[in-house]
Design goal:
The chain contains 12 helices and 13 strands. The strands form 2 sheets. Strands 1, 2, 3, 4, 5, 6, 7 and 12 form an 8-stranded mixed β-sheet that branches. It is globular. About 1% of the residues have low confidence. One of its GO terms (cellular component) is cytosol.
Length: 402
């Protein structure tokens, strides 16, 4: 595996990188010091999850997955071109490097993660050492605690670079989709499910190569029954601290669990069943499939070596309270977890009072306040300054339970 550049990329993406190089040579893409790119990307929560990656490959998942897009949980990213554009006869390493500034951390310039630096250099390979980036980014929700901040973060970064390169002008719609979803995947696997533009991207499928007999994965939106458009989402923040084991680390040890192969073997049939349930609005079946998959994924996490115990005792107790109360009221609601302790609840509007009562009971049980964030917005990935500012200035992307 090349440690400096990502080379395990599909032919379709190589073709697009060559197209960028040709556009640069033809002076149709000209980047100047200080040029800007803007994007905002949503997070997503997987209803059928992936855990584990193919060894020796770049971000190829062991199993396929289906997610629900959290349009109000967003990353906002601006990239600024830094560069010194030398004549060809001058050989010099530029005095620039990629920089990352996280607004959530008081505009602190932090050391850019190696995998992010490698991704940027790979994307900007047609520009060699001419261009580096200053990245200003923030999330409007807690980071690294099981709300897929890396998914929205990497999707927003890739899309902001697309805006810097003005790929909306130079690429067809299909070419832009390939470029966005593939580079996002190569940054952080689940980011590919946050990298679709346009309307009606509520449910997204990310398929492994074995499911469609090619060498790389594929990302696409799913058809669904219109009733799902009223689906609501809230996450209960049981622990906002950054998790001790990152998802990237956890994926490496999935195959050490005795349950891993059993879980993966059942995924193809469950994918088909979930797609059918989404198209027919079979809420009870989606509830069953999603909750069962969350338990099975966390069983794999907890039985691998080293163990990744994201589902702690407190979360397990709160899930037990949720299920008992849900079954008592026959509410249209189900829970799931990402790689973190925070409880995601998806529900239909007529079950709001149940969710509110559950919240009160859970707080009494833990004898403390449980913060919550309700998704209140449904747009997918957007690219460009005007769209960025439209969404950034929009009130109430998220709210809380009353």
């Amino acid at each position: 595996m090349n440690q400096n550049l990502i080379t395990d990329i599909p032919a379709s993406l190589k073709k697009l990188q060559n197209k960028i190089l040709e556009l640069k040579i033809a002076e149709k893409i000209i980047i100047q010091n200080g040029d800007l790119g803007y994007a905002s990307a949503p997070s997503n929560i997987a209803l059928l999850k992936y855990w584990g990656k193919t060894l020796g490959r770049e971000q190829i998942p062991i199993n396929s997955s289906i997610s629900y897009t959290l349009g109000g949980f967003r990353s906002f990213t601006k990239v600024t071109a830094l560069g010194r554009f030398f004549p060809d006869e001058i050989k010099s390493d530029a005095l620039f490097s990629n920089q990352l500034i996280l607004k959530n951390k008081n505009n602190e310039i932090i050391q850019i993660p190696h995998k992010m630096d490698r991704l940027i250099k790979s994307i900007l390979f047609p520009f060699g050492k001419e261009i580096y980036l200053k990245i200003d980014s923030y999330n409007n929700f807690p980071t690294a605690c099981g709300i897929a901040s890396s998914a929205s973060g990497y999707a927003a970064l890739v899309a902001a670079i697309a805006d810097l390169l003005q790929l909306q002008i130079h690429f067809t719609e299909q070419e832009l989709k390939i470029w966005l979803t593939e580079w996002s995947r190569l940054g952080s696997g689940s980011a590919t499910r946050s990298a679709l533009t346009g309307d009606d991207k509520f449910f997204v499928k990310w398929e492994t190569p074995s499911d469609h007999k090619i060498d790389f994965s594929e990302t696409q939106n799913l058809k669904y029954h219109p009733k799902w458009r009223t689906l609501q989402h809230v996450v209960f923040i049981l622990d906002s601290n950054e998790k001790s084991t990152s998802s990237s680390e956890g994926h490496k040890f999935a195959e050490t669990s005795p349950f891993h192969k059993i879980r993966v073997a059942g995924i193809p049939s469950r994918m088909k069943l979930m797609e059918k349930g989404l198209q027919e609005f079979d809420f009870d079946f989606i509830q069953y499939l999603s909750e069962e998959d969350a338990y099975s994924m966390h069983a794999v996490m907890q039985t691998g070596e080293p163990k990744a115990c994201y589902l702690n005792n407190e979360t397990a107790e709160i899930i037990s309270i949720f299920v008992k109360l849900r079954n008592k009221y026959e509410a249209k609601a189900f829970w799931t977890l990402d790689a973190g302790p925070n409880l995601h609840v998806l529900f239909m509007p007529d079950s709001l009072s149940f969710v509110q009562e559950f919240h009160q009971i859970a707080q009494k049980f833990l004898n403390r306040k449980i913060n919550n964030i309700v998704n209140n917005f449904n747009e997918s990935l957007i690219i460009g300054r005007s769209e960025y500012e439209r969404i950034e200035n929009r009130a109430h992307l998220t709210t809380t339970l009353s």
